[in-house]
Structure formats: C-alpha cells, structure tokens
Write a structure and sequence with these properties.
With about 270 residues, the protein is mostly helical. The protein is about 70% helix and about 0% strand. It has a two-stranded antiparallel sheet with strand order 1-2. Strand 1 and strand 2 form a beta hairpin. It is elongated and about 65 Å long.
Length: about 270
C-alpha cells in the first residue's frame, strides 16, 4: 500500500506501516499453545498477520485475525488501528464509515501513536475533510523517531495544497526532505510550487535532482509534464521535445498529454 508509482504520488501518503516488527513464525500446535499462554503475544501476532493479509489482498483472513485480536484485547492500539485500515481498504460505504471509530479509538488509547494519526489523516483526506486531516498529519509529522514521519509530512504538504495553502505546503515538503533527502514526492511537489511562482532556477534544480535519483527508471506522466514546462521556461527546446515524445509514447491517454495537445491548439493559454 505504498503511495508512489513511477516516482509519482498515487494516494495521500502511506496508509499504514504494515510491518509491525513481530516475527511471524507460526509453527503448528507449539505456537498455538504459546499464543494461548501469552495473550499479548497472540494479539501482536494476529495483528501482524492481518497486516500481511491486507498486503496480499486477503481481507477476509485479515478480518478474522483482527476479530480474534480485539476479542482478546479490545484496548490494543495496534489492532484498532489495523482494523481501521482494513475497513477503509475494503472500501464499501458501510465499512468505510465504521473505520473512523477504530482510528479514533486507537488515538484515544495512545495519543502519541503516530501511525494511527497518519492513517486517520489519510482517511479524513479521502473524505475531503482537509482541516481535520491536516491536524492529524501535523501530529504524525512532528513525532521524531516515527518511521513513517516522511510520509506524514508528504501527506501534510499535499493536503495543504488541497486547500490552496502553498506556503505551508512548501514548509511541509522541506521538512520531509530534511527527514529524508531522497523523498521524490517532496522534490516534485516543491518543484511544482516553485514553477508556479516562476522560481525557475529552484524548480529546475529540484527536478534535475529527482532525475539523477531515479536514474534509468521511467518517469511518470506527471513528472514528464513538469519537466516539459520547466524546459519550456528555460527555453530548452531540445529537452522539451524529448520529454514531449516520452509523454506521448508512454502515456498517450494521460491527462497531461491531453493537456499538451490542448495547449498546441490554443497557444495563448497559460502552461499549467
């Protein structure tokens, strides 16, 4: 459930950190006996198994494990959080509605559990409840030591963009780069912000850094469109044509390529 595809953000941030650091060594009756003897270990193992099942798409198996985990320990922060992830992942209106209660319960049980805040922020953003999502992402992004902190800051920046707050979005993306200098989402989003402000040198530097980072990997449609517009602003016609050819060859049906074709018909239009 990553939120990057070909270097491009597909969904707001990481929905959940599925690896809970629990060894999944279930070996027959001996393990079953140990789980019964140690309820906390059982809950941790069931929750970790559920995470793996979610990752593999077996949502029914995930639900069975989480039901057992919560029956054993209703106050498990991790199991409540994971149940919220599961119900949101399933996607039906009734389950999506139920997911919120599990995220809220996880946070109420442990307000410092950053992963639940990030996951709840993703949930809220998906419902277009952006101010509430921002509050959750800010908490998660401020949690030093949290492994998903970069993703939370990326999510925060992209949510600020949803409410047209580019100043705070810029701040969040810069924080994401401080947390992880290889954040391609932060680089591309910042380059877009700088391009919109006509800070071409800054936009170009970030974009070129992104290209060096991905090496021979194929760019996504959005990054190619960004490169086209930066090259156009720099009057680099050769580079611009190269990116246009890549965009047309790899993503002919993309919104970005259709936008390019539209601009060819209306030269006076603004290239955004």
């Amino acid at each position: 459930m990553t939120h990057i595809r070909d270097g491009q953000p597909v969904h707001l941030g990481t929905i959940c950190a599925l690896a809970l650091g629990v060894a999944l060594t279930l070996t027959g009756c001996q393990t079953t006996h140990k789980l019964k003897a140690d309820p906390k270990a059982a809950v941790a193992t069931r929750t970790a198994l559920a995470a793996e099942y979610i990752r593999s798409g077996d949502l029914d198996a995930a639900k069975r494990n989480l039901d057992e985990a919560l029956e054993t320990e209703p106050s498990s922060v991790e199991a409540n959080n994971m149940m919220g992830v599961l119900l949101q992942q399933e996607g039906s209106p009734s389950n999506v509605a139920k997911a919120e209660a599990y995220f809220k319960r996880a946070i109420s049980l442990d307000p410092k559990y950053a992963q639940a805040r990030n996951n709840y922020g993703v949930y809220l953003s998906g419902r277009k409840r952006y101010p509430e999502a921002i509050a959750q992402f800010r908490e998660a992004g401020a949690a030093l030591g949290y492994e998903g902190r970069t993703a939370a800051l990326e999510n925060l920046g992209r949510t600020y963009l949803q409410v047209n707050d580019s100043k705070n979005a810029e701040k969040a993306f810069k924080q994401a780069l401080q947390a992880n200098r290889d954040s391609v989402i932060a680089k591309l989003e910042l380059a877009e912000i700088f391009l919109q402000r006509n800070q071409i040198k800054d936009a170009s530097a970030l974009y070129n850094d992104y290209l060096r980072q991905i090496g021979s990997q194929k760019q996504g449609a959005r990054s190619l469109w960004l490169g086209i517009r930066i090259a156009r602003a720099e009057r680099d016609t050769i580079r611009m044509k190269n990116f246009i050819n890549q965009l047309g060859a790899d993503y002919p049906a993309s919104t970005e390529y259709q936008r390019y074709l539209q601009l060819q018909q209306t030269p006076e239009a603004v290239w955004k």
